[in-house]
Each structure stands twice: as C-alpha cells, then as structure tokens.
Amino acid sequence: MHNAVVTHILAVGIAALDIINIVDRYPGEDEEMRAIAQRLARGGNAANTACVLAQFGHRVDFAGVLADDPHGRRIEQDLLDHHVSTHFCQRVEFSKAPTSYITLNRANGSRTIVHFRDLPEFDFTHFSQIPIEEFDWLHFEGRNVAETAQMLRHAHERRIDQPISVEVEKDREGIDQLFPLADILLFSRSFMTARGYGDPTALFDAVRTIAPAAVLICTRGAQGAVACDADGNEFASPAFTPPEVVDTIGAGDTFNAGIIDALSQGGNLNAALEHACRLAGKKVGQAGFDRLQR
C-alpha cells in the first residue's frame, strides 16, 4: 500500500531506550547465561509507531518526554534520523531516559521486558501548546490516563475533522474514560484477556456501550486481528507469519502504524486490517523496524 498524499500525523506517548539481549533459550530462575548478541535501539510504543509511519512517507511529529542524558540524546537523534520531528517534545533536565531491558528468545521470538522509568509523563500543559489544527491525524498511547483524558478533550475542542486514535495496550486504572474520546480504539490481545474476554467480539460488545461511534480493533497475535465499525460490521484478517519468527518487539506498534497508514489514505477498514497484519508479520520476521515499506 503506497501513499497518494502526505499525511501530517501527531503521535503522543513515550520514547525509551531498549537494551536487547538475544539468547538461544529463555533462562531459568537464578541461572547465569551468555547472550548471543546485544543491541541498543529506540523503543516506546508511540515512538516506534511514529518511525514506521515516517517510512511510508507521512510527515510525523512525536510528542513525549525526552531526558537530558546520553540515552535521551541517543533516542532523540534516532527519531530525527528516521525523519520524525521532536519539536513538540517536553525536555527534562537532570533526568534519566526510560530503559527497557529485553530478553529476546531466538528459539521462538518471544520477548521478556523489565522496564525502568524515572521520568515524568508528557503533560497537558505541553500538549496544549501544540497547534492541533495543523495535523491530519492524532494518535495517543492510552497511558497517564488523567492527563491523556485532558489532552483528548482539548483535541476534540480544537480539531476540525481529524481522526483521533488511542492505543489501549494495558488495563490501566480508569482507562475506560478515554474510550468515548477516540474515533479509533486499538486494543491489544493482552488487554482483552486481562478484562476476561475470550474473543474480540465480547470485548467490542462491552466497549460499544460507552463508545458507540468508535471503530474498534483488537489484535490476536498468531490469530491475526478483528475490527468492528460503528455500524457493528466485523472484519477479520489472519496473521501473516514469516518463515522465521525473529523479533516480536514492537509488532503491535507496527500494526497500529499499518492501521493509521491505510485509514489516513482513505482505505476501508477491511483493507486496513489486512495491511496492518501483513506489516506486523513482516516486522516479526526481521530485527528492528527499518525497511518495512519495501
């Protein structure tokens, strides 16, 4: 899928440094083992999504908090190298960048993450200074719920007709209050199971009571993804599993980028779902996020 026009997208969330240790199997409790390889990479859901979108020719601004330390500067340079603007970021002096310590199991591509964060979340005061009217699409991580709710309400007041998408990865306290404020809700499989639903349809039925007009999308890992439009029509796409599962880090972030890429170009929901699943499958078959558009 190729872009006919350049879409200006704002992605609001976090950026982190990923320290990835690749092992040939997952270690046991109290076991010492040697990593096969190690790499450092930019991480963070919204930052990853932003970088994938930029590959598809979109003009992308990332809005989040950047620490004033070597890791923070490395993260910002990586964003800039991937043609993502950091103009609207909130910068904090004398701080430490969020760090994810990731154990990547080469045997099956699974990743286990220990995340350290000692940095404030992006706040409404900084968000309120962003010229919302200049963007074609607004995307938010569903985190820091009270502040994000303020941002979403402000966006509704200021926007013209720009779609608002919200990623719902984790079952955070009070996160339901964000649902009526989004046009597109992107649920993870882990959120669905944390809420006790066995399939996306059950989740959609529950969410529809508070977000009647939203497009609802839920990933299912190896089973692909399901979407439901505002009229209750459901669409499903299988997963497109690569010949070898190499790296599952950021597959969900890539999927979200695929949805935004397709819908922002006027694609229908069914086509967008397949595009996103194909893109996530390609991501799983390679290390990192580069060259996904080829």
Overview in brief:
The chain is built from 8 helices and 15 strands.
Lay out the secondary structure:
Layout: E1 8-12, E2 16-23, E3 37-43, H1 45-55, E4 59-63, E5 65-67, H2 70-81, E6 84-85, E7 90-92, E8 99-105, E9 111-116, H3 124-127, E10 137-141, H4 145-158, E11 164-168, E12 184-187, H5 189-194, H6 200-208, E13 215-219, E14 225-228, E15 234-237, H7 251-264, H8 269-284
Parallel strand pairs: 1-4, 1-10, 2-8, 4-6, 5-7, 10-11, 11-12, 12-13
Antiparallel strand pairs: 2-3, 8-9, 13-14, 14-15
Helix pairs in contact: 1-7, 7-8
Question: What would you say this structure looks like, in words?
Answer:
It is a single chain. The protein has helices at residues 45-55, 70-81, 124-127, 145-158, 189-194, 200-208, 251-264, 269-284; strands spanning 8-12, 16-23, 37-43, 59-63, 65-67, 84-85, 90-92, 99-105, 111-116, 137-141, 164-168, 184-187, 215-219, 225-228, 234-237. With 294 residues, it is α/β, with parallel strands linked by helices. Strand 10 (137-141), helix 4 and strand 11 form a beta-alpha-beta unit. The longest helix is centred in the C-terminal third of the chain and has 16 residues, at 269-284. The protein is globular. The protein starts with 7 loop residues before the first strand and ends in a 10-residue tail after the last helix.
